[in-house]
Design a protein that fits this description.
about 240 residues, mainly beta, two-stranded antiparallel sheet, 15 strands, about 60% strand, globular
Length: about 240
């Protein structure tokens, strides 16, 4: 259950309440094969993003919040956490913009969730793993330059259902970096070897389903700079 209360045009309070149940195979001899979490969270959001109907070209977003899973209503997965994010869109002419984002989160308690560093929304080019590049806290940063190359593609795929209306085509170049840690003081002692960094480029196809609902098709390739190799991604919707 999610609710939002606007203070004014730019500022609002968002609250979430949820229930999660997880069951595990008892052959692994876990002490507690069933986990129950009763989660509540609240965050303050300031949103001044401006732009055309397809893309954001100016303004920014900021959010800061707190979440908890207390031992109530049968909950046995107990943890707390804080999180925050800052986004900024810098106009670079026309519909192009430099998109910047920094995100951080930290969790504590008997059963804290993992901050997963790799994958879409994190450091692209690194696997989204629950055993590597994870921790109780983490921070990621992204810089992405988005440039339209065809503003009026205007191709209507009427012969399938649901029909797609392809409106515009844009390119992006990006770089991601991030770091996770689990022990206090680990961030201050970080070395370059502990930072995950990648760079790459992508193609964005802006479409409308049934000529009403906007959808962005993304094709990205991210090259790891700290190790060899990279990852190709296809996903729906913008990273931010």
């Amino acid at each position: 259950v999610t609710a939002a209360y606007p203070f004014d045009r730019f500022d609002r309070l968002e609250a979430v309440a949820g229930s999660v149940s997880e069951s595990y195979d008892t052959s692994f001899a876990l002490a507690n094969p069933r986990r129950e979490a009763r989660i509540v969270s609240a965050q303050l959001v300031r949103d001044t993003v401006r732009g055309r109907y397809l893309v954001a070209t100016a303004g920014g977003r900021m959010r800061a919040g707190y979440s908890a899973a207390p031992r109530v209503l049968g909950g046995n997965s107990v943890r707390e956490g804080v999180f925050g994010e800052v986004q900024r869109f810098v106009p670079t002419g026309g519909l192009s913009a430099l998109a910047l984002r920094t995100e951080a989160a930290g969790f504590w308690g008997p059963d804290p969730p993992q901050y997963v560093l790799g994958g879409i929304g994190g450091v692209r080019g690194f696997a989204r793993s629950t055993t590597r590049d994870v921790g109780r806290a983490g921070v990621t940063a992204t810089a992405e330059w988005r440039v339209p190359v065809v503003n009026n593609l205007d191709y209507y795929m009427w012969y399938i259902f649901p029909d797609f209306y392809f409106k515009a085509l844009s390119l992006a170049v990006f770089t991601d970096a991030g770091r996770t840690w689990s022990e206090r003081g680990a961030l201050g002692a970080s070395r370059w070897e502990a930072v995950r960094h990648s760079y790459g480029g992508g193609l964005r196809i802006h479409t409308f389903i049934l000529q009403l609902f906007p959808l962005v098709l993304n094709f990205d390739y991210a090259q790891r700079s700290t190790t060899d190799g990279g990852v190709f991604y296809f996903y729906l919707g913008p990273v931010f």
